From TrEMBL, chain A:
The keyword Oxidoreductase applies. This is Pyruvate ferredoxin oxidoreductase alpha subunit. Keywords: Oxidoreductase, Pyruvate. InterPro entries: PFOR_II (IPR033412), Pyruvate:ferred/Flavod_OxRd (IPR050722), Pyrv_Fd/Flavodoxin_OxRdtase_N (IPR002880), THDP-binding (IPR029061), Transketo_C/PFOR_II (IPR009014). Residues 257-358 form the Pyruvate:ferredoxin oxidoreductase core domain. SUPFAM superfamilies: Thiamin diphosphate-binding fold (THDP-binding), TK C-terminal domain-like. The keyword Oxidoreductase applies. It comes from Desulfacinum infernum DSM 9756. One of its GO terms (molecular function) is oxidoreductase activity, acting on the aldehyde or oxo group of donors. One of its GO terms (biological process) is carboxylic acid metabolic process. It holds the Pfam family POR_N. Residues 14-231 form the Pyruvate flavodoxin/ferredoxin oxidoreductase pyrimidine binding domain.
UniProtKB/TrEMBL annotation, chain B:
Keywords: Iron, Iron-sulfur, Metal-binding. It holds the Pfam family Pyr_redox_2. Transmembrane segments: none annotated. GO terms for molecular function: iron-sulfur cluster binding; metal ion binding; oxidoreductase activity. The lineage of its organism: Bacteria, Pseudomonadati, Thermodesulfobacteriota, Syntrophobacteria, Syntrophobacterales. It comes from the Bacteria. This is NADPH-dependent glutamate synthase beta chain. Residues 553-582 form the 4Fe-4S ferredoxin-type domain.
Automatic annotation (TrEMBL), chain C:
Pfam families: TPP_enzyme_C. It comes from Desulfacinum infernum DSM 9756. GO terms for molecular function: oxidoreductase activity; thiamine pyrophosphate binding. InterPro entries: PorB-like, THDP-binding, TPP_enzyme_TPP-bd. The lineage of its organism: Bacteria, Pseudomonadati, Thermodesulfobacteriota, Syntrophobacteria, Syntrophobacterales. Residues 55-203 form the Thiamine pyrophosphate enzyme TPP-binding domain. This is Ketoisovalerate ferredoxin oxidoreductase, beta subunit. The keyword tRNA-binding does not apply. One of its GO terms (biological process) is small molecule metabolic process. NCBIfam families: PRK11864.1. The keyword Oxidoreductase applies. Keywords: Oxidoreductase.
Length: 389, 582, 300
């Protein structure tokens, strides 16, 4: 059923369809709409879930760690400062191999207070052991959220479904919302491989000395490594039922491209427009949308960029002292290849600044006209600083 | 959708998850101090001349196991019903509970368990050895003789008791007034001794010839005929008609005579006989006055007996010594010399006359009770004999031409008391058994191995290799009791006849107590040094290293896990555990 | 103690608590009273270690070890999951130390009890961060040495009154208990188990290692804390109904202090001052319980 809904609510609908058992959240803009709707669904009986209105994001994640350990399907949503507060428990959830699903609405970190979109918050959590999937539009947000539960419950890793603040979270789009029956066929009830059980009492997460810790870490990595194949298979099923699939990456006209724009999130949609215009002008340009960031889609990236001369990576995020985070990861993924494209790292749209078609086109031309990148990262659209008073 | 898709395609995650317990960690290896069960000696039991296992008796009473409590006493003393009435109970004087609130009413509880057995006609189950060769003659059926016969019979020896008087019991029958010891109680106790096969031959006075000839039939002779010769005052008039000795007076009264007394009657002396005589005289209509040359606190009589006598109306004249007894129209004129304390040495003060201070009093009767001695020389252990072995409450003589002689009871005991007489009989039985089994030279060491605490009390249970052997002789001090586990609780007040009722006749003064009162009183007992299964050790062990077990202790320490923290030892309310270097 | 409680244990030997560990004793008593239908949350504390390393567990009930400050929240989540599954039988219990309760976990605890989550939160209080080597917490009492209040820098601040903080949330049940009073402790756990909503138990658990006391004194010291009114035994229902479970017998606080190495630097003046503080707290408690001072035999 097609419905015009806000991006946030597309996520809420997916959680409803997933029949989450326990939801726990703390308010933060621009995530709040997701859980507001879920709260409503819980109170009016549309969704038979326990909604915990906890006193912090930290406790939201802690509560889900408890609930998931007790063997039920769990969901939370957060953003920015909230995600940063959760940081410790992100490690915990992944290390405990709990299939928690979280919607994370990308928002810049303070100070100064900034509620607008930027990916640094989620990317800063890249080493926590969470799967991270970046969405481009409301439909994808819904589909990815629904898939995330099955992915998480298959590989026993938590999944972060990431969407841009406002550009996606607060934007209304027509979305095809599956029927419950169909959703149920896609996502069976969660049957945990382990859980707190008074009949079979075990202690979980206890002291893990050096003789066992490393194997546990390796097991987590094995799960990460399997996740892309699992996602592929899940998407097969999803496509059969709903006719949509996304892939860990999406390559648009990359096969003959000299320059490939590499994007994530809503910048991708804008880039699609730029791509069309440039192709019309005869430019040999392609577009690579990075959906999966963790696990990192090494193979797909290498395959789709094998013939390109240059990659123009657009990062709406930054790692101070290094560079745009996607660009860094892409460079490291390619560096051992005998033949590899030059990687241009562009930083744009921090703190919610608009990344328009002009910005993207500018990036393309700069890439085309430069023999080499003029630096580790190229900041686009910086204003001249105002003179000090 | 394929089946494969529904099941996880990755193996079960390797997570920190337990699948075994911590029991493979043998934390006992951490230990450098080691707790163990170490039952110790209660002060009461060490103070009891008969060595009764009082702490255990009270534990059994508190558990309602009255028969077992009674049997526990019978291990060490054939006369619980008698001693529960007449013993001077030194046990209570050293009771650790005294430091907390009040001593346990041990005396009353002893009587309670014995009376309960008597009331229900219960037979004790006490182990007895099969009858074996040697035979022993016992001269005198007083408490020491009967105790000797009792313990010897339990050890498998055939005993013949010879009693000069018409009925057995000695001082118990003839010297203790009925208001302290009813005769049926005594007979019940003696009956139980007889039931062990002990033959008591009454009206059978033994002479010194007996010792010479006894070798034909007996391998040993126990001489326990007590002190029956009266000691003279050494003053003019003491042999006047009607001036009577205390013990024969008590015997007359006990035999049923009720001489008609009136007016002031002087009783000279300060021992238990003097007090008993005065109280009998009171009951016969007199106004008794005890005349004593020292002070009340110097009187050898038991304090509580003096107190009761005074309460009943007996008068006490302290520091007056008789100088002369003369006839008087209304009876006798008694001349008294005032005394004063010269020195506070020894158990009794030294006194001397106050020059020129005398007084006279007229009394209707004079009763002398200043002490007694053995009737004949052969009844006393020979001095300086090379073959004489003196133990705490007996003296043994080994002869080349006749049976071994054992002098016991008042003839050899530390003190003249029923409890000491029992101690003496027990010591004799142990000594003779050792002599018969292991020879003369083994006696001292084997007997002293049965000491309760530091002695001199002895335990027959220990002699027989019972559980009590494992007790540490250390006597538990009050500071070693964990008083946190006890609440203040008033001591049982012994119910008694009113003094107005008492002096009307010879009815027993101390009344029975109910089982409920006995239980409550026994629960007050600290059970010093012995395990009463309170389970604190098991409850508080942080390492679950104290387990139930079938052993007599009921529990054991699992040293695989015990870290030696010592909590069990400190939380043992009664110091029945020890912590030592591992 | 009733035999059924005495004889059942949901804890094994071989745990790695220090000799004389009060927290181990407390856990034993708690589980005796709770029984097998219990799920336990253990945030970082001594018990994270005591319970044993992977693959061991010394407890015979399911345990979720979790991050330091999450005791209130994780238990909320487990309870929610059990509710979602229709399991009304199982009791969810958080077992946290004083650091995880008074300090870092206070927010999650306050949040959980404000929501009146249906669980029992137990703080076993050994009055400092013992697992990390004796650092002061807001539970460390006035006068105590710790490695972060060394020498003349001994703690000159009062211990946070955690029970009163919880009582202020008007939770259905809050109580103190001590390892030296097992019957009282077990009774309170059983009572708590029978109540719906947030229940808080503050269990005094002596720490021989951190308090510098001989291990065999673990129970004795805990008992003295009660006898001296330093740690009164009481319970509060619905934030208003106070019941004092133990009336003092006139012990002075110095008797408790002088036995412990952590207080050995205190002078007679300090001890007098502490006695006054203890009296003040006790009188305050008496007022709340509506007990007159003379009836309670307050130490002058």
């Amino acid at each position: 059923m097609k419905k015009v809904v806000e991006g946030s609510h597309a996520v809420s609908e997916a959680v409803r369809l997933a029949r989450a058992d326990v939801i726990s959240a703390y308010p933060i803009t621009p995530q709040t709409h997701i859980v507001e709707l879920l709260s409503e669904y819980c109170s009016d009986g549309t969704l038979n879930a326990k909604f915990l209105r906890v006193e912090s994001e930290h406790s939201a994640m802690a509560a889900l760690i408890g609930a998931a350990s007790a063997g039920v399907r769990t969901f939370t949503a957060t953003s920015s400062q909230g995600l940063a507060l959760m940081h410790e428990l992100l490690h915990w959830a992944a290390g405990a191999r709990l299939p928690i699903v979280m919607a994370e609405v990308n928002r810049a970190l303070a100070p100064g207070w900034n509620i607008w979109t930027e990916q640094t918050d989620s990317l800063a959590q890249r080493d926590t052991g969470w799967i991270q999937l970046y969405c481009e539009d409301a439909q994808e947000a819904l589909d990815t959220t629904l898939q995330a539960f099955r992915l998480a419950e298959t590989v026993y890793l938590p999944v972060m479904v990431v969407l841009d603040a406002f550009f996606l979270s607060h934007t209304y789009e027509p979305v095809d919302i599956p029927e419950q029956e169909e959703a149920d066929r896609f996502l069976p009830p969660f049957k945990p491989a382990f859980q707190l059980d008074t009949q079979n009492p075990s202690a979980f997460n206890q002291l893990a000395p050096p003789n066992v810790y490393m194997e546990m870490r390796r097991s987590l990595q094995d799960a990460m490594e399997s996740a892309l194949d699992v996602l592929d298979t899940i998407e097969d099923d999803y496509e059969k039922l709903f006719g949509r699939r996304y892939g860990a990456v999406e390559a648009v006209q990359c096969d003959d491209a000299d320059i490939i724009l590499v994007t994530s999130g809503t910048v991708t949609s804008t880039s699609r427009l730029v791509l069309r215009q440039l192709r019309e002008k005869g430019e040999k340009v392609g577009l690579l949308k990075m959906k999966a960031f963790r696990p990192f889609p090494f193979e797909a990236l290498r395959k789709h960029t094998a013939h390109a001369k240059k990659l123009a990576v657009i990062d709406r995020n930054f790692s101070f002292g290094a560079g745009g985070i996607f660009a860094q990861e892409i460079r490291s993924a390619l560096c051992n290849l005998a033949r590899r494209p030059l990687v241009f790292g562009y930083v744009a749209g921090l703190g919610g600044r608009d990344v328009t078609t002009d910005v993207i086109e500018d990036i393309y031309w700069r890439t085309k006209t430069s023999a080499h990148p003029e630096g580790e990262s190229i900041w686009i659209g910086l204003h001249q600083p105002a003179p000090a008073a | 959708m394929t089946e494969q898709m529904l099941s996880p395609i990755v193996p079960t995650p390797l997570i920190p998850r337990s699948f075994t317990t911590t029991e493979s960690n043998k934390t006992g290896s951490w230990r450098f101090l080691k707790p163990r069960y170490d039952e110790k000696t209660a002060p009461c039991s060490a103070a009891c001349p008969a060595g009764e296992d009082i702490a255990r008796v009270e534990m059994l009473v508190a558990q309602g196991l009255f028969k077992e409590a009674w049997e526990t006493i019978l291990q060490e003393n054939p006369f619980p019903a008698v001693c529960g009435r007449v013993c001077f109970h030194p046990c209570e004087g050293v009771c650790n509970r005294k430091e907390f609130d009040d001593a346990i009413a041990i005396h009353t509880l002893e009587r309670f368990v014995a009376d309960t057995a008597m009331r229900y006609g219960i037979q004790p189950d006490i182990a007895r050895r099969p009858v074996q060769g040697p035979r022993v003659a016992v001269v005198g059926s007083g408490p020491s003789g009967l105790a000797a016969a009792y313990f010897l019979a339990r050890l498998g020896y055939t005993c013949d008791v010879f009693e000069a008087k018409s009925e057995p019991g000695g001082i118990l029958r003839w010297g203790i007034p009925l208001y302290r010891l009813p005769v049926n109680v005594l007979e019940w106790e003696i009956g139980r001794i007889r039931s062990l096969g002990v033959e008591i031959h009454c009206n059978h006075r033994v002479s010194s010839d007996f010792l010479r000839d006894a070798g034909d039939r007996y391998q040993a002779v126990f001489i326990g005929c007590g002190h029956h010769r009266n000691v003279d005052l050494g003053i003019p008039g003491e042999n006047l008609d009607g001036v009577e000795e205390g013990l024969p007076f008590l015997e007359r009264v006990r035999a049923g005579e009720r001489p008609d007394l009136s007016g002031a009657v002087a009783i000279i002396g300060g021992g238990n006989t003097a007090v008993d005589v005065s109280r009998c005289a009171l009951r016969l209509g007199a106004k008794p006055v005890i005349v004593y040359r020292r002070r009340r606190q110097d009187m050898p009589a038991f304090e509580h007996e003096i107190e009761m006598a005074l309460e009943e109306g007996v008068e006490l004249m302290e520091l007056w010594a008789p100088l002369e007894i003369a006839p008087h129209a209304d009876g006798y004129r008694l001349v008294l010399q005032k005394m004063e304390v010269a020195a506070e040495e020894g158990p009794r003060a030294q006194v001397r006359p106050v020059p020129g201070e005398t007084r006279e009093m007229v009394v209707s009767k004079v009763l002398k009770a200043i002490g007694n001695a053995a009737e004949e020389a052969w009844m006393e252990p020979p001095e300086g004999d090379g073959k004489l072995l003196r133990l705490a409450n007996t003296a043994l003589v080994r002869r080349d031409d006749g049976p071994v002689l054992v002098y016991g009871g008042d003839l050899a005991a530390l003190e003249k008391s029923v409890a000491h007489a029992v101690a003496s009989g027990k010591e004799a039985a142990m000594a003779l058994d050792t002599y018969f089994q292991d020879g003369w030279d083994a006696i001292e060491s084997k007997v002293s191995a049965c000491r309760v605490g530091q002695g001199p009390s002895l335990s027959m249970e220990m002699y027989l290799g019972g559980e009590r052997c494992r007790r540490n002789p250390h006597v538990v001090a009050f500071q070693e009791i964990n008083t946190d586990y006890f609440l203040f609780s008033p001591r049982l007040a012994q119910p008694r006849l009113l003094k107005e009722e008492r002096i009307q006749g010879f009815s027993e003064i101390d009344l029975k107590i109910s089982a409920a009162l006995a239980l409550r009183e026994a629960e007050r007992c600290f059970n010093c040094g012995i395990c009463n299964q309170c389970d604190n050790c098991r409850l508080f062990c942080p390492d679950l290293a104290v387990c139930r077990d079938d052993n007599p202790q009921g529990r054991r320490i699992n040293y695989d896990y015990c870290k030696g923290c010592g909590v069990c030892v400190v939380e043992c309310p009664r110091n029945a555990m020890a912590l030592e270097q591992d | 103690m009733e035999l059924d409680v005495l004889d059942r244990d949901y804890m094994c030997s071989g745990h790695v608590g220090c000799p004389g560990c009060g927290a181990a004793i407390a856990m034993r008593f708690l589980l005796k009273a709770l029984g097998e239908k219990t799920m336990m949350v253990i945030p970082a504390c001594c018990w994270s270690i005591i319970a044993g390393p992977h693959p061991q567990s010394t407890l015979k009930v399911p345990v979720l070890h979790t991050a330091f400050e999450t005791g209130g929240a994780v238990a909320s989540g487990i309870r929610a999951a059990l509710d979602a599954k229709g399991d009304t039988e199982t009791t969810v219990v958080t077992w946290a130390g004083d650091g995880g309760t008074f300090d870092i976990g206070f927010q999650a605890l306050s949040g959980a009890v404000e929501r009146n989550e249906d669980f029992i939160y137990v703080c076993y209080d050994n009055e400092a961060y013992m697992n990390t080597g004796v650092q002061r917490s807001s539970s460390t009492p006035y006068g105590a040495w710790t490695t972060t209040t060394p020498g003349q820098e001994w703690k000159r601040l009062r211990k946070k009154n955690i029970v009163e903080a919880l009582v202020a949330h008007r939770i259905p049940y809050a109580a103190t208990a001590s390892i030296a009073f097992p019957e009282d402790l077990v009774r309170k756990v059983k009572k708590a188990k029978g109540i719906k909503g947030s229940r808080f138990l503050h269990i005094y658990a002596s720490c021989p290692t951190g308090w510098r006391i001989p291990s065999e004194m673990a129970i004795k010291i805990a008992r003295m804390a009660v006898q001296t009114n330093i740690f009164p035994l009481y319970e509060v229902e619905n934030g208003v109904r106070y019941t004092i479970n133990y009336m003092p017998k006139g012990y002075l606080v110095r008797e408790y202090f002088k036995l412990q190495g952590r207080f050995k630097h205190l002078t007679d003046n300090d001890l007098e001052q502490i006695q006054e503080m203890v009296n003040e707290d006790w009188e305050l408690l008496l007022r709340k319980a509506g007990v007159s001072m003379s009836a309670a035999g307050t130490v002058a």
